[in-house]
Amino acid sequence: MRVDAHFDEFLYVPARLSVVALLAPADWVDFAFVRDTVGTSDSALSKQLSALADAGYVAVRKGRDAGVRRTRVRLTPQGREAFRRHAAALEQIVAAARARPHGAETATGFRR
Amino acid sequence: MDPDEARRSLDTMRRLQDRTREEYLRQSFSGPGALLVALGLFIVCASFDLPGRWDTVAMALGDALILGVLAVGYARASVRRKPSGAELVIMLAASAYLIAGFVALHVAARLVGLPAPYTIAAAATALAFVAFGRPMRRVYEKIVR
Questions:
Q1: Chain B 64-83, CB below 8 Å of chain A: which residues?
Q2: Residues of chain B contacting residue A21, judged by C-beta atoms under 8 Å apart
Q3: I need a labelling partner for A82 at 20 to 30 A (CA). Which of A18, A70, B62, B93 fits?
Q4: What are the pLDDT digits (tens) for B115-130?
């Protein structure tokens, strides 16, 4: 199996990958928690979330909890699967490098 | 992508996933919330010693306190996730232990002839609830990771 078959170009962007990684262990995560943990601004996070939502990777829900306006984000099943595959592809790249004899050329099929 | 870059991405992913899990554990075992639930537990368990309709009133108050704390905690939670099967089993087992401990303590207090046996058993049960918070968090930590 080729590693790059599961490598997700869309998640290669670090900001997107950070958001998706943060959402992965949970069902719903508060927008403010994502913003503060990733260390970004409201507008930058909104932009990344829009891109992720357009790709079908996340869902955004706006509402009120205990009288406070809240925006919550979750991974969609498609986003969860993409993240799982992407992580597996990264693991394979690392494992392939470990298995290669010292000094051998990279053979993962893609290099940036 | 070279292996070092892949390794760095994996490290970042793990670190961020751990932050979410830590936040979930922090809010699930928050100190003030646990103390208020313990207080509610004490009120509910001790209510059996009260005469007349006061036992119903106290039980309703205790139940309202417990449910209120849980509802507010859920509403304010910045990380929400459905408890796994293992978490539910641990939760049910812990509840069963607390109930069994409460009943056993009440019987012992009655046999010894202590006054207000339910209140004594309720105090011990509430203290046990607080004391088990830290070990329970460790168990949850292993399950969540």
A1: 72, 75-82
A2: 12-14, 16-17
A3: A70
A4: 899 999 999 999 999 9
pTM for this entry: 0.82
Reported as a single tens digit per residue, the pLDDT across A8-22 is 888 888 899 999 999
SS3 string, chain A, reads: CCHHHCCCCHHHCHHHHHHHHHHCCCCEEEHHHHHHHHCCCHHHHHHHHHHHHHCCCEEEEEEEECCEEEEEEEECHHHHHHHHHHHHHHHHHHHHHHHCCCCCCCCCCCCC
Distance from C-alpha of A18 to C-alpha of A95, rounded to nearest angstrom = 22
Which chain A residues are closer than 8 Å to B80 by Cβ?
26-29, 72
Residue A17, chain B, CB below 8 Å: the answer is: yes
